[in-house]
Structure formats: structure tokens, C-alpha cells
């Protein structure tokens, strides 16, 4: 109720004469809303369909990661989480404080 009073008080009769821009924005919002509802309905209908694995970069990398030897696995581990090497180096290089 308070919001309605503010709009009437601020706009008055002047805003009723110049509503072309606001109308265009409202139409755009409605079109976008209907489009998003359509996308949601389509995804809802397809939710039970089995997913087909796609061939591509991620699939190739995943396949290669499953067949790593120990040296390659160590290299990937260091690249994935370098903080473990940093922590090990800090333990070795920083003298303990007494």
C-alpha cells in the first residue's frame, strides 16, 4: 500500500502521459519471462532421458587420466595441489622457533 502511494505521489498525471519507455520494458520482461518458462518446461520434459556422453576434450583428458603411470600421476598431483609442495618446503627450510 505504501509503495502504491509513493508511485502515485511521485508520478502523478505526468507519468501517465509518458509511459512508452516503461511499456517497452514491461513487454521485454514478459517476453523474457515466457522464454524462460519455455526453457524450464523443455528441461523438465527431458529430465528422464538418458544422457549421451559427448566426445571432446574433457572426455579425452579423463580417459588419459585413468591410464596414468605413477610418475605422471605424481606430476598431475603436484600441478593440481601445489600447496603440498609449498608446505613441505616450508617445513624443511624454516627453522623451528624455540
What does this structure look like?
The structure is a single chain. The protein has 98 residues and is an all-alpha fold. The chain has a domain at 20-48. Helices cover 74% and strands 0% of the residues. The chain is built from five helices and no strands. Residues 1-8 have low confidence and may be disordered.
Task: Furnish the topology, listing elements before pairings.
Blueprint: H1 2-17, H2 20-45, H3 57-65, H4 70-80, H5 83-93
Entry keywords:
mainly alpha, elongated
Distance between the termini: 69 Å
Mean of all residue-level pLDDT scores: 78
Radius of gyration: 30 Å
Note the main sheet.
Answer: none
Number of strands: 0
Number of helix segments?
A: 5
Q: Specify the helix fraction band.
A: over 70%
Structural class: mainly alpha
Strand content range: under 5%
Which stretches of 5+ consecutive residues score pLDDT under 50? 1-8
Question: In sequence order, what are the helices and strands, one letter per element?
Answer: HHHHH
Amino acid at each position: 500500500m505504501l509503495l502504491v502511494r509513493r508511485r502515485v505521489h511521485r508520478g502523478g498525471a505526468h507519468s501517465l502521459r509518458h509511459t512508452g519507455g516503461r511499456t517497452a520494458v514491461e513487454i521485454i520482461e514478459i517476453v523474457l519471462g515466457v522464454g524462460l518458462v519455455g526453457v524450464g518446461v523443455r528441461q523438465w520434459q527431458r529430465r528422464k532421458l538418458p544422457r549421451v556422453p559427448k566426445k571432446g576434450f574433457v572426455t579425452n583428458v579423463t580417459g588419459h587420466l585413468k591410464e596414468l603411470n605413477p610418475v605422471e600421476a605424481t606430476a598431475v598431483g603436484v600441478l593440481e595441489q601445489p600447496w603440498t609442495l609449498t608446505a613441505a618446503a616450508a617445513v624443511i627450510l624454516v627453522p623451528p622457533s624455540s
